[in-house]
Structures are given as C-alpha cells and as structure tokens.
Design goal:
Number of strands: 0
Radius of gyration: 19 Å
Mean pLDDT: 86
Structural class: mainly alpha
Strand content: under 5%
Low-confidence stretches: none
Number of domains: 1
C-alpha cells in the first residue's frame, strides 16, 4: 500500500524515467523539426518572408510555439496524474512536491526542445535537422542508460544532460536539483536565442 512519500517516489521512478525519455522527446523532435528546417527545405520559407513578417518575427513565433507545445504536454501530464491519484490514492499525493517535480522536468525539456529547435534553424535540409535534433537527445539517453547499468560505466552518465535531473535529490531539498533547474533554464535561453539569431543571418537556398 502506498504512503504519502512512496507514491511520489514511485511516480518519479516510473513516470519520470521511461515515459519521460520517450513520449515528450519524440514530440519535441517531430514538432521542432517542422518549425524551420522543413519550411527552408521545401522553399516555403521564401513565401513567408515575402509577407510583412521579418525573419526575427517568424523565428520568435516558431520558438514560442515550440515552448508552448512542450509546456502544454507537461501541464496535461501534471493535471492527469493529480486527478488520477486523487481518485485512486486520495490524500496520498504531495501536490506541491509533484508540481515542483514537473517544473524540474519541464525546464529539462526546454533544453531538449532548444537543441531540436537550434538544429532546425541550422539545417537547410530536413534530413540534417532531423539527424542533429534527434541524434543529440538520443545520445544523452544512451549515455544515461549506460551510466546506470554499472559495471564501471557510471562515468558515462555524467556526460548526459539527464544527469542534471535527479528527483530524489529534489525531494531531499538538495541544492543540486535547483542548480540543475538553473542550468536547464540558462541552456534553453542560449539555444533558442542562437537559433533565432541564426535564422536572421543565414543564407537561404534558392
């Protein structure tokens, strides 16, 4: 039977392990791939630029959509989990900690989204955008899995972006989790900013 503490620990060890690395990541890769690179590859970016919209405005609009989409996903996950737990395990969910956990995960995915968005901005062809945007996050997942497998491979996990996401240390009030949040927020800001500026200066194929 779950207790007040074990329910949150169980969710962080299941929902925020396998599902966190699959469902939101796939959506992030697909959505961001279509925001800039696909338009450039198909030539439709030229039509967008023939309107009164500037490159900066188009890029910022796409970046806002990118951030809004992943935010909506985590809001949906949070609301659904809270509603489900209130029916199945009434009174056992630490709502404040669970929301904080989701903010932690969301900031991490802002960084993942930022990588995918930057890849979409850098590439002139869809295949390169998809390769870079999907390749780096998948590499981080593999490094995390190898690091968690033990057998002298723990050091590989430190090269993964996901190493900064540690729910247990968050629940313990460890400053590491809050430092991770700050790093995620900073990286996301840099990635999106560089992507927007790159779109503004890049040479578009004719």
């Amino acid at each position: 039977m779950f207790s007040y503490t074990t329910l949150l620990t169980f969710l962080s060890g299941t929902l925020y392990s396998i599902l966190l690395y699959l469902f939101p990541m796939i959506l992030s890769i697909v959505i961001n791939h279509r925001l800039i690179a696909v338009h450039v590859d198909k030539g439709s970016m030229a039509y967008l630029l023939s309107t009164s919209n500037s490159r900066i405005r188009i890029a910022v609009t796409q970046a806002v959509f990118s951030l809004t989409s992943v935010t909506a996903i985590f809001c949906w996950i949070t609301a659904l989990t809270l509603i489900t737990s209130s029916f199945m395990f009434p009174g056992l969910m630490d709502t404040k900690q669970f929301i904080l956990l989701n903010i932690y995960a969301l900031l991490m995915y802002y960084t993942i989204n930022g990588i995918c968005f930057l890849a979409s901005c850098l590439a002139n062809e869809s295949r390169y955008s998809l390769g870079l945007g999907a390749g780096l996050p998948i590499m981080f997942v593999l490094l995390q899995m190898l690091g968690a497998s033990g057998e002298g491979l723990e050091w590989l996990g430190y090269f993964s972006l996901f190493a900064l996401f540690n729910p247990e240390r968050l629940f313990a009030g460890d400053s590491f989790a809050y430092l991770g949040m700050a790093v995620f927020a900073g990286l996301a800001t840099v990635l999106y900013t560089v992507g927007i500026l790159w779109v503004n200066k890049k040479d578009l194929p004719i």
